[in-house]
Specification:
- With 233 residues, the protein is α/β, with parallel strands linked by helices.
- Helices cover 37% and strands 19% of the residues.
- The protein is built from 7 helices and 10 strands.
- The chain has a 6-stranded mixed sheet. It has a two-stranded parallel ribbon with strand order 3-9. It has a two-stranded antiparallel sheet with strand order 8-10.
- The longest helix has 23 residues, at 210-232.
- Bound molecules: zinc ion.
Length: 233
């Protein structure tokens, strides 16, 4: 059986996604599926550096050998951690999107019950609108990598003091030559710096309901079953 790896914490401000993943892990294990979780420490992330977390080191958040932020700790850093520490695992990385200002492909219409949420592929080139979205990374080399999931959450602005400290730290790092790779990643980083998941509001909205966890568990199980078939043939 393919071993399943859930990954949380790459974006520490998306904390509701980690709560769903922890419950999904328990449910997968209770069903006898070999599943494990990688909890990325916040001090490994760009936000951890901007928040002055003990042990944070900006050089862990850059493309190796450069001063280019890997804002997502994603294809280039995150995939390396997985490949080295968990070779061969079928990996699912958990994220949150703001349910009311998602990409347009990802959104929750008011009044939609969590039991009616649909999970769909939102990779470039696909169509459709879903409450829970996924796509599959293709790191350098074109080999299919981990799956990414986007779960709805309610976000709130971070406090002024933290926001100001993040901005000052980002400016200091920029003065030292550290930069996001391009305009897109600068925008992503700026968005990450000013908002964070409000867990209680997310719970009140129903986005942490058992129905959501159950949908995630069923979806992960089905992908794992297909993966097992593919690896056998
Ligand atoms: Zn994210």
């Amino acid at each position: 059986m393919t071993e399943i790896l859930l990954i949380v914490g790459l974006h520490p401000h998306e904390s509701a996604a980690a709560l769903v993943a922890e419950r999904a892990l328990e449910a997968l294990q209770a069903r006898g599926l070999p599943a494990d979780i990688l909890r990325v420490p916040p001090e490994w992330t760009v936000l951890g550096c901007l928040d002055d977390l003990p042990g944070a080191d900006v050089n862990r958040c850059v493309v190796p050998g450069t001063k280019e932020f890997d804002t997502d700790l994603d294809a280039r850093v995150g995939d390396k951690i997985v490949a080295q520490a968990y070779p061969g695992r079928l990996a699912f990385e958990f994220h949150n999107y703001a349910f009311d200002h998602g990409s347009g492909r990802l959104a929750v219409e008011p009044g939609t019950a969590p039991s009616a949420f649909r999970i769909g592929d939102v990779a470039p080139g696909t169509t459709g609108r879903f409450e829970i979205g996924f796509w599959r990374n293709r790191p350098a080399g074109g080999i299919p990598g981990k799956y990414l999931m986007e779960l709805p959450a309610v976000f709130a602005p971070v406090g002024r003091a933290r926001r100001d400290r993040r901005a000052a730290n980002l400016q200091r790092l920029a003065d030292e030559g550290y930069l996001a790779a391009d305009e897109h990643w600068r925008r992503v980083l700026n968005a990450h710096m000013i908002e964070e998941v409000d867990v209680e509001a997310t719970r009140a909205a129903g986005f942490l309901d058992d129905a959501v966890v159950e949908k995630v568990v069923r979806w992960v199980s089905s992908i794992a079953a297909v993966d097992l078939l593919e690896r056998k043939t």
